[in-house]
Design a protein that fits this description.
By secondary structure, this protein is of the alpha/beta class. The chain contains twelve helices and eleven strands. It binds (2S)-2-hydroxybutanedioic acid. This is DctP family TRAP transporter solute-binding subunit.
Length: 312
Amino acid sequence: MPANAKLPIVIKFSHVVTPDTPKGKAANYFAQRAAELTEGAVSVEVFPNSTLYKDKDEIQALQLGAVQMLAPSLAKLTQLGIHEFEVFDLPYLFDDIQTLHRVTEGWLGANLLGRLETKGVKGLAFWDNGFKSFSANRPLHDLPSFKGLRIRIQPSKVLEAQIRTLGAQPSALPFSGTYQALRTGFIDGAENPHSNFFTQKIYEVQKHIVLTNHGYLGYAVIANKRFWDNLPARIRYQLTQAIGEATEYANRIAQEENDQALQKIKATGKTRIYTLSAAERAELRRAMLATHAKMAPYIGQSVVNAVYEETG
Ligand code: LMR
C-alpha cells in the first residue's frame, strides 16, 4: 500500500428494522453499491435492528456525528422539531403509492427534505415501506371494537390524534420495545406495514390483523450535513448515485415484500387476517378523516394544502 493511501471513509448507517425488510434490504444494497461505485474508498457499515441506537437516540447520534447516515420513518423526523413531515401520517391521504410518489419525487418532497438543513441534517431521498394495518387481540371490524384499546404509535402528534378518532388510547413507544409491550399486555395493539409486523413476530402476540391500509409509512434517507458537505466532491457524486440506485431498488421491492410478509403471517396460522367490507371500511375512514382538519394547523396548513394539490 502506498504511504499516502487513505483508509476508507466509514459511514455508519443505523436503523431499527431487521435486514430482511424493505429498508433493511435497501440499506444493504446502498452499502454494496457505495463500495462498488467508489471502488472501496467508502465503507458503509449497516447496523440494523436497533443494535447501535434506538429510535430517538439515533437522530441525536446523527446530529452529533456518532453515525453518519440513517433512514428513520418520516414520523420520527418530528423529533428534530420539524412537524411538517407528520403530514405523511395523516390517514387516508394517499390513494396509492403512485399518488404518494407525486409528493416524494416532486418539488414538494425536495422542499421538505431541504427544511432539515437548519437542523444540521442533509435529506437525501425518500424510501417506501407501505401502507399500515392495525393489529390487536380482538377482531377490529368497526369503531366500537377500537374503543379503549391502547395502541402503540410512533412519536407523532398526528398519529396520536388519529388513534383518538377511533376512541382508542395512543401510546408512543420505540419500535424496539413494541413486541415486549404487546407480550406483557402493556399495550393492546399496533399499526405497521406487514413487513414490520412479520419481522417483529407480531403473530406471536397478536391474534388479529385488520387490512385497513389507512396510512403510509416511509423513510427519509438522511446524513449528518457537516459530514456530507465535507466529503470530496467526487465521492459525494458517487454516493448520490448509490443512493439513487438504492431508492429505485427500495421502492421496487417494498410492495412485494409487504405482500409476501402478509402471506407468511397467514402461514403461521396464529393471526387472523380480516378484510373489511365496504361499509366497515367507510365507517373507519370517516372517523379517521377527522384527523386532517384537526391537525392541519399543527402540521402547517400550507404544507397540507400543497399535498392535497399535488395528489388531488
Ligand atoms: C415504527 O417505529 O413503527 C417504524 O418506524 C419502524 C420502521 O423504521 O419501519
